[in-house]
Design goal:
alpha/beta, Dehydroquinate synthase-like, alpha domain, six-stranded parallel sheet, 13 helices, globular, binds zinc ion, oxidoreductase, ADH_Fe_CS, Glycerol dehydrogenase
Length: 368
């Protein structure tokens, strides 16, 4: 039965453009007249002023509350209680991935709609029906799978382009893997992120994601270096925030993210961004798939062009220790991780050898 059940899941609305913050009330008022806004500290005053005005002018109410740095159950409970006390009927999250995940979880426990406003474009977090919850000490607690995607995602290109280039480019790295992982999962008829089968629509969006970043990624990166936004920046944002998130959710993940997950255990890589590690996971996946040289070169030249880290050394690795990378490979093949979506069976030893081969390729092309 499940074999033939495919899906595409997505936010109800995805809006990309400039000056969305000062228009926030326009996008929340469909859902409610009293917004509870969970906001990163760095943008709290600006949001209160700009978005606050839009609520006042529309005759709507709003509460702005600072996000306390970590998406813990305690933080979620605090906001769920706060939203209830305030009598809010729509939740808004403004900030980085953890803030957005807190807003999604708060909306879920409050049974209210949620409007998501990312301030960095570094991951797929904004569009997905998932909240990653951490413990008070910063370690992973659990995944909270949500029954639906956010109601609205607002991608303000001026705000996203003003964030450090490294975050923007890390988002491109995460998006670079989307097509290849969806392709593997589709070939395998594996499970996508909502535990159903990859749909044609998911595959199509993943494909468009790859084509869009190849076409506009470099132009966008150069614009963001100058803190400005152009049509190329907005196209790239559409790819990194929408096409990548929705494409991965419907198309499924495979080796690249499984290897990334294994790599989180390597201490000297802790400063690498999610999307930066995913890029190395992708190179390893291409080796495992014995992808054509042409395809590998296209990916590697693009990685270099947008300034993503290519080799393990670029990622911050101090020294290659066999034992450490054997356990990365072991973790990447753990039961329930997405390595199972590769078209052929993959063992930890296959992954270990592919990691070495991928790094050798990366070193070869590094100074070319
Ligand atoms: Zn990712």
């Amino acid at each position: 039965m499940k074999k033939s059940v495919k899906s595409i899941t997505s936010p109800k609305r995805f809006i990309v453009g400039q000056h969305l913050l000062e228009d926030l009330s326009t996008y929340t008022s469909t859902y409610g007249n009293h917004a509870y806004v969970i906001c990163d500290e760095f943008i709290l005053d600006r949001a209160k002023k700009e978005a606050g005005n839009s609520f006042d002018e529309a005759g709507n109410q709003s509460e702005f509350v600072k996000f306390n740095y970590e998406n813990t159950q305690e933080e979620i409970d605090k906001h769920t209680e706060g939203a209830k006390k305030a009598g809010a009927n729509v939740i808004v999250g403004i900030g980085g991935g953890k803030t957005l995940d807190t807003a999604k979880a708060t909306a879920y426990f409050s049974k209210l709609p949620v409007v998501i406003f990312p301030t960095i474009a570094s991951t797929d977090a904004p569009c997905t029906a998932l909240s990653v919850i951490y413990k008070g000490d910063g370690s992973f607690d659990r995944y909270l799978f949500l029954p639906s995607n956010p109601d609205v995602v607002l991608a303000d290109s001026a705000i996203l382009a003003a964030a450090p280039t490294r975050f923007f480019v890390a988002g491109i790295g995460d998006a670079l893997a989307t097509y290849f992982e969806a392709r593997a999962c589709y070939r395998k008829n594996g499970d996508n992120l909502v535990n159903l089968k990859p749909s044609l629509a998911g595959m199509g969006l993943a494909n468009m994601c790859y084509e869009t970043i190849l076409e506009y990624g470099l132009q966008a990166k150069l614009a963001v270096d100058h803190g400005i936004t152009t049509p190329a920046v907005e196209n790239t944002i559409e790819a990194t925030i929408y096409l990548s998130g929705v494409g991965a959710e419907a198309g499924g993940l495979a080796a690249a993210h499984a290897i990334h997950n294994g790599m989180t255990a390597v201490p000297s890589l802790h400063h690498a961004q999610h999307g930066e590690k995913v890029v190395f996971g992708l190179l390893t996946q291409l080796v495992l798939e014995s992808a054509p040289q042409e395809e590998i070169e296209e990916v590697i030249y693009f990685i270099k062009e947008v300034g993503l880290p290519l080799t393990l050394k670029d990622l911050g690795l101090d020294e290659f220790r066999e034992e450490e990378w054997r356990s990365v490979a072991e973790a990447a093949c753990a039961e329930g991780d997405t390595m199972g979506n590769m078209p052929h069976p993959v063992t930890p030893d296959d992954v270990y050898q592919a990691i070495i081969a991928a790094n050798a390729l990366a070193e070869y092309y590094h100074d070319e």
